[in-house]
Design a protein that fits this description.
Aspartate Aminotransferase, domain 1; 19% strand; binds pyridoxal-5'-phosphate
Length: 477
């Protein structure tokens, strides 16, 4: 008999060190409420417990308290992850057919919102950092150009921080966008912990964004799927609430809601000590990383303080380990971490692995990660920096995304798709950023990127074709 999911979870969780989400890291000493969240208190919206979509009692009070803790005018609790916040936010600020300016490295939920509301995107490509072969910060010039060329756009949507922890100059970007009358949505899914301690950068709420979406579960001690949406004005909050009532479940889990509320209270009452612990754990990792000879950790060890090409700043909770300068790739590094050290990373790319830390991490967990890297590093050899550029490449759009997404299609082996217009979204997960979306023309670089991601055993999600190795392209384009 194959094991049940529960059996597998019970068996593997006690031995694996999670360098992945959720941010509580099963640390029930830090967040004792996590132990209580079980069937005994699993209810629905009954008398005395308020209604998430028409809150006027305990949930309203809890959301108001969260707004105070995060410095927002209004805050909504989300139980369908940042995804539901992003869909709702974009629909709250656009009308069908509107033009939006957005960074091309947005999460797939942003693209789904484009399709749902028939929006026309103008993409800003983030800069690149060739030392690490990752997407870097957004340039102000690129945003200025996009605004100048698309005066009809009313909304700017950006992701900050990125999966690897790269941040852009949000206060300046937001001021620029506001000067041109744009409403700014920031996908801060990876940054719910920002703005509480000088060790971490400020958050998008204090930078003045109109709507900010944060996944609490990614870095803070809250259950998976929990997130927040912060909104800057009453009018926007009203529209946001209307959209959440469309996209979000009508049966919100009180276990998830209680986990959000408890996490907010923990932040309110123990902010300083919790962030000091996390900082101490990250600094302990830094000491270990100083001993690495071949593996490089973005912003840590010998890399700390280095000027990084096109990177405005980093937020230190992400431990992105690059294998570009040694004789193994990200996939091999992840296998070694798993097999020899029972460490499970968050993201694996052909050129590195991402260790995602969370507030539940301790000096012990991060030293264990550092020691594992040191041991692996000691048997590696230096290699010529790999020449292949393994970042999601630029592709060009020929047909509006919402049209192409529904148009008739045929399927082709991916190797033969060069020059065809895509009929589907293809996403490498994580990070969940589409490599191509409907209406874009597949090119050789994108094909090579997808084949490398597949070879590195990444999950590839396709929205229409269902045969491995094939892609859906427009029949009539
Ligand atoms: C940048 C970004 N935005 C949004 C999301 C969606 O967040 P959630 O999984 O909480 O719905 C993700 C998920 O990985 C993400 O990486």
């Amino acid at each position: 008999m194959p094991k049940s999911l529960l059996e597998l979870l019970e068996e593997s969780c006690p031995i694996t060190l999670p360098l992945h989400m959720p941010g509580h890291k099963r640390n029930t000493q830090l967040a004792p409420y996590l132990k209580t969240l079980a069937a005994q208190i699993d209810i629905t919206e009954i008398k005395g417990f308020d209604h998430l979509h028409a809150a006027e009692g305990i949930l309203l009070e809890a959301m108001e308290q969260a707004a105070t803790v995060f410095g927002a005018k209004h805050t909504f609790f989300l139980v369908n992850g940042s995804t539901v916040g992003i869909l709702s936010a974009i629909r709250a600020v656009t009308a069908p057919g509107d033009h939006v300016i957005m960074s091309r490295n947005c999460h797939k939920s942003v693209y789904n919102a484009l399709m749902l509301n028939n929006l026309r995107p103008c993409f800003i490509y983030p800069q690149t950092n060739m030392d690490y072969q990752i997407a870097a910060s957004l340039s102000l010039t690129a945003i200025e150009q996009a605004i100048a060329q698309h005066s009809e756009a009313r909304v700017l949507i950006i992701t900050c921080p990125t999966y690897e922890g790269v941040i852009s100059d949000l206060p300046v970007i937001i001021r620029l966008a506001h000067r041109h009358g744009l409403t700014v949505i920031v996908d801060e899914a990876h940054g719910s912990h920002l703005g509480f301690s000088p060790y971490f950068p400020g958050n998008a709420v204090s930078a003045g964004a109109d709507i900010v979406i944060q996944s609490l579960h990614k870095t803070l001690p809250s259950l998976t799927q929990t997130a927040l949406a912060h909104v800057r004005s009453d009018a926007l909050a009203h529209e946001m609430q209307r959209q959440l009532a469309i996209f979000e479940t009508t049966s919100p889990s009180f276990l998830l809601l209680a986990s959000i509320d408890s996490c907010v209270r923990l932040l309110r009452d123990h902010q300083e000590e919790m962030f000091t612990h996390w900082q101490t754990a990250l600094e302990a990792f830094h000491q270990k990383a100083l001993g690495l000879s071949h593996l490089r950790v973005l912003g840590y060890g010998a890399e700390r303080g280095r000027n990084l090409e096109n990177v405005f700043g980093l937020e230190p909770s992400k431990l992105y380990v690059s294998t570009l300068h040694c004789d193994i790739g990200g996939y091999e590094l992840a296998e070694l971490l798993r097999a020899q050290f029972s460490i499970e990373p968050e993201m694996i790319t052909p050129q590195g692995v991402l260790g995602m830390t969370g507030m539940g991490d301790t000096v012990q967990t991060l030293e264990r990660f550092g020691d594992a890297l040191l041991q692996i590093d000691s048997v590696l050899s230096a290699a010529k920096v790999k020449k292949t550029r393994l970042m999601a490449p630029r592709v060009y759009s020929k047909v509006p995304i919402a049209t192409a997404e529904r148009a008739p299609f045929i399927v082709l082996p991916i190797q033969e798709a060069e020059g065809y217009v895509m009929a589907e979204t293809i996403v490498v997960y994580p990070p969940g950023i589409p490599v191509v979306v409907p209406g874009e023309v597949m090119n050789r670089e994108a094909i090579d990127y997808l084949l490398a991601a597949k070879a590195a055993h990444n999950t590839i999600l396709r929205s229409r074709s269902d045969v491995d190795g094939q892609v859906a392209v427009l029949r009539d384009a």
